[in-house]
Amino acid sequence: MDKFDCIVIGAGPAGLSAALTLGRARRNIAIFDNGTNRNRVTQASHGFLTRDGIKPQEFKDIAMKELQSYPSISIFHETVIEVDKDNQTDLFFVKTSNNASYMAEKILLATGIQEEFPLSQVKQYYGKSLFNCPYCDGWELRDQPLAVIAENSEHAIHLTKLLMNWSKDLIVFTNGHELSDQVRNVFESKKIKVYTSIIKNLLGDHGKLERIELESGETISRSGGFVVPRFYRPNQFAEQFNCQVDENGIIITDGNGRTTVPGVYIAGETEKAGPSSLMIAAADGFKAATSVNMDLTLERF
């Protein structure tokens, strides 16, 4: 069985950054990638210096090519299905869907998160004309007639306030949920329309939103918009290790990627179970990797 200093699970910006940092530190590591990065449906990624507007797959391909320059980095295109720790040896064991097994002194979890949408039709438009992050895609939709799809008052007011800087033509859709009187009053004062009827259908062509059809019979023209998904971790690895989680579902760390379980590190969206930018996730990966390297150094010195 192959033994590594550290196994990095996940090849998004956090995992790739961590792998690069550990490879440059001459650590014998493995990174596992199954191609389920959350941004794979997006046409372009924004906000990463020198790479603004790059296609997500191109960003990943460049990073993977850079990793191949370091002989101590092994890349596996496999899905990790099981992770265990031997409490006697403090070694970690990873099993993949290919029925292969690997062993490491440290584990770095960077598997990210996935979205669950308030209505299934969103998937047809997500990453093309419907998005969740104004910082990532607001510029491309500036000054357009936009929809804000949010099912509770807190999300609706937060996202609408934020979007006002990109477009003043906003309409809020709650998909059958009522807003608080306070939030409704705010929207009325800003002359922002609110539709609380259930959304029957999203209409458009090739991922380009054109109209929103309500069960009330009304159809409203919109050329794009933003939606509030529910985010979740696609696996229970952190929970299986009994990493401590706070009341908001955030995995508790020391601020540098170390969880409450010795040898288990975390980086990127996996930690917060919420969305993050490419740049922040990559920075998280760097910090977690330096923690892994320092701990290995101190243990072996």
From TrEMBL:
Domain of life: Bacteria
Keywords: Flavoprotein, Oxidoreductase
SUPFAM superfamilies (UniProt xref): FAD/NAD(P)-binding domain
A Pfam family that the UniProt record links to this protein: Pyr_redox_2
Span of the signal peptide: none
Cofactor(s) the protein needs: FAD
Every FAD/NAD(P)-binding domain range: 4-285
Matches recorded under InterPro entries: FAD/NAD-bd_sf, FAD/NAD-binding_dom, Ferredoxin-NADP_redctase_2
Assembly and interaction partners: Homodimer.
Protein name per the record: NAD(P)/FAD-dependent oxidoreductase
Species per Swiss-Prot/TrEMBL record: Ureibacillus galli
